[in-house]
Structure formats: C-alpha cells, structure tokens
C-alpha cells in the first residue's frame, strides 16, 4: 500500500472516529499517525489500523486474536506492545470503533506516558 493510499485509509478511519478536523493525520515512518490534541493514539501501517492500548484493551485485543505492531530493525523483529491491530468486528461497528478510539486516546494520555515519545513518533510529519 503506497503512502497516498495509507493516508486515505487513515483519513477514512479519522472521519469515522470523530468530527472532521478534530484528528490530525501525520506521516509516521511508512504509515500515517492519528493524532488528537498532540497525542498519537493510533496509526495505519500497511493497511492495518493500530490503536494505543492499556492493559485492559490489550487483553481484549489478544482475546480477539489481534497482534501487537511488529517491525524489522537491524536484522531482528521488534514488537511494540503499546499498539495493537484493531479487530475486524470493531472496524465494522462505527460506535464500537469510536469507543475504542476514545479508550486509545485515554491510554495515550495516561500518567507515565511520555510526551517526548509522541513527539519522536510524529516528528516525520
């Protein structure tokens, strides 16, 4: 999936989650980040929507068979357990998708979440 298609998919998800203009889409490595009020709470990479999770969401996503975000770096695979692929049944249910996005935003803003991490992740936009 090329960057224009990834951005288009991210814009589509953003329009389903919140009113137009309330979610910014920024370049994020090979994908597009979803950012609200300066907090990255999700991203689209290779056609997959990933949301920031807390412990409760991680358990729910794992129960649904979702996987954490993974990428290859320096000849090894890195697993990022803060972001999980959104299950298909959530994407297919607009109300549930909105609920999960709000939960992801809350997880991104929870105490202990480093804003510098967010700036580093979205600095390519």
From TrEMBL:
The TfoX N-terminal domain, residue ranges: 16-108
InterPro entries registered for this protein in UniProt: TfoX-like (IPR047525), TfoX_N (IPR007076)
Pfam families: TfoX_N
Protein name, entry field: Competence protein TfoX
Organism: Rhizobium hidalgonense
């Amino acid at each position: 999936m090329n960057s224009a298609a990834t951005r288009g998919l991210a814009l589509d998800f953003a329009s389903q989650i919140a009113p137009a203009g309330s979610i910014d889409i920024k370049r994020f490595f090979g994908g597009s980040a979803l950012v609200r009020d300066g907090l990255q709470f999700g991203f689209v990479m290779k056609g997959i929507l990933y949301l920031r999770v807390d412990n409760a969401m991680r358990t729910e996503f794992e129960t649904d068979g979702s996987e954490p975000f993974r990428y290859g770096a320096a000849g090894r695979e890195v697993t990022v357990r803060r972001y999980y692929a959104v299950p298909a049944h959530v994407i297919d249910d607009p109300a549930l998708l909105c609920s999960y996005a709000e939960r992801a935003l809350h997880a991104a803003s929870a105490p202990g979440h480093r804003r510098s991490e967010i700036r580093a992740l979205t600095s390519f936009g």
